[in-house]
Write a structure and sequence with these properties.
This protein is α/β, with parallel strands linked by helices. The chain is built from eleven helices and 20 strands. It is globular. Keywords: ATP-binding, DNA damage, DNA repair, DNA-binding, Hydrolase, Metal-binding, Nucleotide-binding, Stress response, Zinc, Zinc-finger.
């Protein structure tokens, strides 16, 4: 007689094993391996169900789209990220580190929507009603159409939705809400999956937009099962440093708009405010030229923003010189230092401490900032400043060439709007020529022609 075999499966990735394990051997998630033993049963054929009325499939050209049009939230930067506003029936997940300002932003969204005569239900599963009221009073978000509830039970939240009949629901946060239909504590994968599935079904059935706040883990990813990101319609990430007032909202997933947009905000004592033109946040306008600074034009989504890169080169007595970066990729900086010393004749970098940082707390991840980083390091190494009217953008190859970058015309127009006269990009050809143009050193006949062309 065959002995029944117990099977365990990971609810995240589907990995199976014969013995229970606290950690999945495939996706390395904790607490996701469950017992999936089932009794053998005869397979039953699924019988078709008759579809009548509006449920019958119809041509896509006959589908009305007026019910899914965007309606603006009143916050332009948030609408930019969402693709024009909130779509009725959509579920939006906003994640971010603790204290970055997620609740403040969504309370501002709720206030703007309530001021437009739309009833809003704000469910706080982490704070009491009085605490939310104090924050709303401080940020000026008090509105008569804004309803507040402090609940952690999913069934009670659904009852609140039935009683209030809101046009917008905000739940802070999805990891602290529990359902009686699922075992486990709030925040566990089974609970998060059940809560999210129920809320998404309510949003689709009632054409009700729901905004969810999500926690993040130590590595910055959204806590809970990965299925949560697949179920929702929009996933936004709230980024920022506690030491600075600047905040960014990025769309990681958007079924109703682009995913390359970014919204800029600033945290103040009165709450959070949008920054439509952040061009002055990442530049230092000093009257004295200082070696080791260079301005580039970076692309955040489809927005071009000028960013100042600063570098400092100091002789080192340690056997392993330090490479300290802030706001830029450390491995990219190490590659640029090697190219500078090998291809552009910038000597002494291998025996010096190199510090590279950006102004304003912004992070540069695109290769278009390579040239500005290289020019800032070369300026600091040779102790020669770069003019205030110089802007540089381009990718640097290991052969020492300056390669073109995407959206060059948009970067150039933004630089011209801000008053930068000298533009150094892929037209310089090689990195050594770009350094000569930036530092205004004596150049050869070919470099003089390039210099004249850029002026």
């Amino acid at each position: 007689m065959a002995r029944p075999v117990s099977s365990f499966r990971c609810t995240e990735c589907g990995w199976t094993t014969l013995k229970w394990a606290g950690r999945c051997g495939e996706c390395q998630q904790w607490g996701t391996v469950v017992d999936m033993t089932e009794k053998a049963s005869l397979s039953r054929a699924v019988k078709p169900v008759a579809v009548i009325g509006s449920g019958i499939a119809r041509p896509i050209t006959h589908v009305d789209t007026t019910a899914v049009s965007h309606w603006p939230t009143g916050i332009g930067e948030f609408d930019r990220v969402l693709g024009g506003g909130i779509v009725p029936g959509s579920v939006i997940l906003l994640s971010g580190e603790p204290g970055v300002g997620k609740s403040t932003l969504l309370l501002e969204v709720a206030s703007k929507a309530a001021a437009a005569k739309s009833r809003v239900l704000y469910v706080s599963a982490e704070e009491s009603v009085s605490q939310v009221r104090l924050r709303a009073e401080r940020t000026g978000a008090l509105q008569p159409e804004l309803f507040i509830a402090a609940e952690t039970d999913l069934a009670t939240i659904l009852g609140q939705i039935d009683a209030v009949q809101p046009s917008l629901v905000i739940i802070d946060s999805v990891q602290t809400v529990a359902s009686g239909l699922s075992d486990g504590l709030p925040g566990q994968p089974s609970q998060v999956r059940e809560v999210a599935s129920t809320l998404i079904r309510v949003a689709k059935d009632r054409n009700l937009p729901i905004l969810l706040v999500g926690h993040v883990t130590k590595d910055g990813s959204i806590a809970g099962p990965r299925l949560l990101e697949h179920l929702v319609d929009v996933v936004c990430q709230f980024e920022g440093d506690r030491q600075t007032a600047l905040r960014f909202v990025r769309a990681l997933k958007n079924r109703f708009g682009p995913t390359d947009e970014v919204g800029c905000f600033e945290m103040t004592g009165e709450g959070i405010s949008e920054v439509p033109d952040p061009s002055g946040l990442f530049l230092t306008r000093g009257g004295v030229l200082v070696p080791g600074t260079c301005v580039t034009v970076a692309l955040e989504g489809r927005r071009a923003m000028p960013v100042e890169v600063q570098a400092l080169v100091m002789p080192s007595t340690a056997p392993n010189p330090r490479r300290v970066t802030n706001g830029v990729d450390s491995s990219r900086v190490a590659m640029i230092i090697a190219v500078l010393e090998q291809r552009a004749d910038v000597k002494g970098l291998g025996a010096s401490d190199v510090y590279v940082s950006t102004v304003g707390g912004i992070r540069l991840t695109e290769p278009g900032a390579d040239l500005a980083i290289a020019l800032a390091i070369a300026s600091a190494a040779r102790n020669k400043p770069i003019g205030h009217d110089v802007v540089a953008f381009g990718e640097i190859s290991l052969a020492g060439e300056v390669r073109p970058v995407s959206s060059a015309k948009q970067r150039a127009s933004e630089a011209a709007r801000l008053g930068f006269v000298t533009r150094i990009d892929s037209g310089a050809g090689r990195l050594d020529s770009a350094i000569l143009l930036a530092l205004r050193e004596p150049v050869s006949a070919r470099d003089a022609e390039l210099d004249a062309a850029f002026r």
